[in-house]
Amino acid sequence: MSSLPTTEYCPEAQCLIAAGLQSHVLVPSNAEYTQRIESYWCNSAKLRPACIVQPSSASEVATAVKALADAGQVFAVRSGGHGNWAGSNNIDGGVTIDLGLISSAEYDATTELAHIGPAGKWKHVYEELEKHGRVVAGAREAEVGVGGFLLGGGNTFYSGRVGFGCDNVVAYEVVLADGRIITADATGEYSDLFRVLKGGGNNFGIVTKFTMRTFSSGPLWGGYAAHPMEIMPAAAQAFVDFTANSSKDPDSTLNLSVCHMPHLGGSLAVAVCTNVAGVENPPAFRELREKPEILNNLKKTTLQEVLPYTSLPPNFYNTWYTLTFKNDASIIAKAHALYTQLTSKVQEKVAGGEFTTHCSFQPIPKYYTEHSVAAGGNIFGLERYAHDAILIQASVSVRTPELASWARPQVREMIEGIRKFAESVEDGICPWLYINYASPDQNVLQSYGKDNVDKMRNAAAKYDPKGVFQRLCPGGFKISAVKD
Ligand SMILES: Cc1cc2nc3c(=O)[nH]c(=O)nc-3n(C[C@H](O)[C@H](O)[C@H](O)COP(=O)(O)OP(=O)(O)OC[C@H]3O[C@@H](n4cnc5c(N)ncnc54)[C@H](O)[C@@H]3O)c2cc1C
Fold it and tell me: Cα of 407 to ligand 1 centre, how many Å?
């Protein structure tokens, strides 16, 4: 932590110092400041705040929020720092509230609940809970942070069993804009806030603790199978059949990516397959497994061992877009064709070939929504859509900001091409856009539907009447920016 004389701190830090947080403030001359900036996953997110404040408890977060709000100081909120775009979790010139010191995970055997700090990395959460033979519906990757993942929703290896990660949160400890620390749950005074935190991002306050349902952990079966790209587009039907039959085997999940990954040998189709009940080679994967394969490491394994297989390399400039559409092979085939065109363009543009492109297809079968509804509901509005759906995360990762600026319209064009094609299929578009995969120019909160937009607006007005999280915390998808 910093130990400069008070006068040498930037003006942005003065309100924090006056509030007694000086020992938690990092300025650019501190080595820890540089370490924290470098630890963002995406290079575009490595902005330069005037200072970083690292509270170590909910009450220190409250002190920081109150001080910043009273001073009219702009700020950003960061948990795991895995957000994919500049400004969602960091800020040039303002103050970044870095929750990095609030990262513990504790299991309560009496209630069978886990209490998890926002900046925990999922690999550490799983490690801690595994000591008690328990697990939660967290990320499929090791380094992703708890806070952004759960406030956005969270697609997990356990979603077939228990729905999205957010559907498994039973209580949120939240610091509101006026510095109050409250607990929002399904039935108490803050049940309206509880609901909108399930997908509503950083619009309402800063979550300092997530309390989640746990369930028994156990060995998994899974890993990845790398296929030659030539299995596409024929493999689209295998994916569609997997999704359509998913409710018969909710323990099995599939994430099929078409990707160009130099470290994996170029262009490939990679299927990450898991069965969380540990069933070996479950029939759900048979159709896909019959396709030509380069190699696989599928075996009886552990959650920790599978986590690296959905990892994406850090320290690139990334452009991510998302779309959700009907479980339909013709749309997947179109997406693959447009992805191939995009990859050729990137290949032509990027001298030396140091880039990755990636388009992953993830089943969102209708019955996931039933889990959400049974758990009290989230705000995605997926219940409006009558069909099984497919979520895609499409991205280009390059080494310079100039190439990233060039890539953004290219990825957008690909997504718009898929959307246009999907619109030609009956009910081809599912309206929900996944906040955690979206580009900042996508209308994420609007995609949840009018009722849910109203719920979010009402909650923001009630719990943050001065609009602190709308005006002073510009990062993330803002409810005040949603147009009717
Ligand atoms: C390699 C990789 C793998 C991934 N795997 C998955 C996956 O398996 N499933 C999936 O669904 N998603 C996955 N994602 C997406 C991931 O869920 C999002 O990037 C998520 O936002 C990361 O959480 P974080 O805490 O690291 O976010 P951060 O970048 O720290 O924050 C993201 C946003 O949430 C806000 N925020 C964070 N914490 C809080 C808080 N406590 N209170 C209020 N606002 C807060 C921030 O202000 C910011 O706007 C993956 C991403 C990457 C890069």
Answer: 22
- Asked if CATH classification 3.90.1150.10 holds for the domain at 220-445, the reply, yes or no, is no
Closest of 334, 427, 418 to residue 389, by C-alpha: 427
Distance CA 317, CA 46 (A): 10
Q: Which residues contact 77 (CB under 8 A, 6 or more apart)?
A: 89, 96, 97, 99, 147, 202, 206, 473, 475, 476
CATH code linked to domain 10-98:
3.30.43.10
Q: Assess whether pLDDT exceeds 60 at residue 67.
A: yes
For residue 255, the model assigns a pLDDT of 97
- What's the CA-to-centroid distance between 453 and ligand 1, angstroms? 21
Q: Domain limits of the chain? A: 10-98, 105-216, 220-445
What residue's CA is closest to ligand 1, atom 28?
Answer: 81
Distance 199 CA to ligand 1 centre (A): 11
Give strand pairing partners of 393. 322, 360
DSSP 42: B
What are the b/e assignments for 83-115, b being 16+ CB within 10 Å? bbbbbbbbbeebbbbbbbebbebebeeeeebbb
Question: Tokens for 16?
Answer: 């924090």
Q: How far is CA 266 from the centre of its chain?
A: 26
CATH 3.30.465.10 fits 105-216, yes or no: yes
Closest C-alpha residue for ligand 1 atom 53: 82
pLDDT tens for each residue of 313-361 = 999 999 999 999 999 999 999 999 999 999 999 999 998 889 999 999 9
Q: Which residues sit with their C-beta closer than 6 Å to ligand 1?
A: 41, 77-84, 88-89, 99, 118, 139-141, 144-145, 147-149, 151-152, 154-155, 201-202, 206-207, 310-312, 436, 475-476
pLDDT at 201: 98
Beta bridge partners, 174, equal 182, 207
Indicate whether 2 pLDDT > 70.
Answer: no
Give the pLDDT band of residue 262 (cuts 50, 70, 90): confident
Q: Which atom of ligand 1 is nearest to the CA of 165?
A: 11
Q: What are the pLDDT digits (tens) for 210-251? A: 999 999 999 999 999 999 999 999 999 999 999 999 999 999
